[in-house]
């Protein structure tokens, strides 16, 4: 028995008024992010200009704090002037935008100093209206509705109907084995979702073959090949949907799409076709994600230890002949998914060298 942090995601069916409220909160988060970024950028530009005049470090304009606390403090002092409408949304919308900005700036600063692993990150950019819609709530009245498994509560939005039952989370909450810590609403492929971050007590049974260590080689022809000789076929969800996807894209090319140069707005028929394309992409992504999670859950429940192949996915997608198949197989998701499943059982999932696969042993 152990306490783990787990996410539960549910699709929503909001009313038109509730959808307008959700969009307003997501827009408020984007506004706060852009406001804070503009403030920090102006401070950095001012210091850079002063340094070019020959001023020493002590004579430069003090740097604006970009910690989450410092950004929130500055926002509270300026919100009445820069956003007199701020009371229309929950304060969490603005706080989540500033928290995201603080994380982005910290990652950029650590990457510049060389203390952050991975590729080098650039300075954060302003978010446009086309950016993904999302908003996070950590305080306020949010969570499940008592005795109702088809509705959830969100701050300032109210009670929203879910597209699916919430019983898989409600049962744990009713038994006192789970506590909801935060809620994140997002909009993807024409549908709203809410994701709850939950502290949950799990008592998963021991693995069926606890004394067996298995090596997993990820690939494109086969999704995974185990050191035990078992082969996991690649379902090729994208290949199955390619025919319909090509048809819809040809259809969209015959519609009147947007043109920034002339200011032409897209036709309703173009919008409908694009919505169908987004829906098809979402179906492929959901099927791929579902298969990977089922595979990784089976691995963790079956074997005592798992060792993954450390593939250079970024290098694979640069090859134009392999890019589509590598992305379609979900190899990039196939690596963190077993580690996430292993964390739920407090188990580490190490990696091994790509050029020494288990099949070569």
Automatic annotation (TrEMBL):
Q: Which residues form a coiled coil?
A: none
The Transposase putative helix-turn-helix domain, residue ranges? 3-45
Q: Where is this region: Disordered?
A: 249-271
Name this protein carries in UniProt: Transposase
**Matching Pfam families:** HTH_OrfB_IS605 (PF12323), OrfB_IS605 (PF01385)
What domain of life? Bacteria
The segment(s) forming the Probable transposase IS891/IS1136/IS1341 domain are: 196-320
Against InterPro entries, the record matches this protein to: RNA-guided_DNA_endonuclease, Transposase, Transposase_put_HTH
